[in-house]
Design goal:
Blueprint lengths: L2 H13 L3 H7 L14 E5 L2 H11 L3 E5 L14 H8 L3 E4 L8 H6 L5 E4 L25 H18 L4 H26 L5 E4 L5 H6 L3 E4 L12 H13 L4 E4 L6 H9 L3 E4 L11 H16 L1
Parallel strand pairs: 1-2, 1-3, 3-4, 5-6, 7-8
Helix pairs in contact: 1-4, 3-6, 3-7, 6-7, 7-11
This protein binds zinc ion (ZN).
């Protein structure tokens, strides 16, 4: 869909009278909206942010996950129902850095709620702004940046619901302590290991930077649906040979065949390194810990 027709669709949605929400909210979907509630209505764009919001807001917010479980968020677009839900929410929590490519359309169409860009305050080295490279949105995979995202969410909840400020901030502190422990564990356990690993798509740059690792990728763009060409496969196989790499990573939501082809060439093995984009089980911390275990098998 081009931007024009997206705009047209969102424009149509916005003139739908508010009365239609009553009809929608009476259906039994998991995204029930109770309009009379005094709880903050919070929508998070994808899984890690939803989990952060739940940990900070607990029973004082109604937290909704926008991109459904099992769906890959990179190229996802909201449906008409999704936009209706967004229109009656207090806060929309986004990753930012271009990850939610639908947000500009929402802003241009008189969205009344607050959009919380959790990347705010995270200073990343962007490439020369004159080139057209896509910015890298994968900040949540660096626990140090994830902590800033958590704090941004806690501050947004506190601003929108000041009487519960202490509650949100102390829940955030508790969660930040867990993230500190995770960060420390990754730092300690990878510190004396080798540094080159082959991820599936370009999701671990910030993670690699934080822990002094070198990410190589099978798919050269940061599009997880990208195809590996014969040329990229050939290149990554020779990289693996040069660097003595024997673990090739895949992701839980992609066909492991591509990684397996490379692993077969080098007599290696495929393991999962999850970008936590399509989460099916566990939590941010348990999935990141699993990533650490698999990285240790590859690097230590
Ligand atoms: Zn990604």
């Amino acid at each position: 869909m081009n931007n024009h027709s997206k705009l047209a669709i969102i424009a149509i949605i916005i003139v739908i009278p508010v009365a239609s929400f009553a009809v929608y909210s009476s259906d039994s979907s998991q995204r029930n909206i109770t309009l009379e509630t005094t709880k903050l209505q919070v929508i998070s764009s994808f899984y890690p942010l939803h989990e952060f919001s739940q940990n900070i807001g607990k029973e004082k917010v109604d937290a909704v996950l926008l991109v459904p479980i099992g769906v890959e968020p990179h190229d996802w677009e909201p449906t008409i129902k999704d936009v209706q839900i967004m229109q009656v929410s207090d806060l929309i929590i986004i990753n930012g850095i271009g990850f939610e490519n639908w947000i500009d359309n929402l802003e241009e169409n008189n969205f009344q709620g607050i959009i919380v860009d959790t990347s705010s305050g995270i200073l990343i080295n962007l490439d020369n702004e004159n080139n057209n490279e896509i910015e890298d949105p994968h900040i949540w995979l660096n626990p140090v940046y994830a902590k800033i995202q958590v704090q941004n969410i806690a501050n947004a909840f506190s601003n929108s619901d000041p009487k519960n400020q202490k509650y949100y901030q102390s829940n955030a502190e508790e969660y930040l302590e867990q993230l500190d422990l995770l960060d420390l564990k990754i730092r300690n356990e990878l510190s004396s290991c080798t540094s080159d690993f082959i991820a599936f798509h370009d999701a671990f740059s910030y993670f690699a930077e934080e822990y002094d690792l070198n990410q190589h990728t099978i798919i050269s763009s940061n599009d997880p649906h990208g195809e590996a060409t014969a040329k990229t496969l050939e290149n990554i196989i020779s990289t693996a040979r040069e660097l003595n790499i024997n673990i090739i990573f895949s992701e839980e939501s992609v066909n492991p065949k591509t990684s397996q082809i490379i692993a077969n060439e080098i007599n290696g093995k495929v393991l999962v390194l999850s970008p936590l984009e399509v989460i099916s089980e566990g939590t941010y911390i348990s999935q990141m810990t699993k990533n650490l275990e698999n990285l240790k098998e590859a690097l230590c």
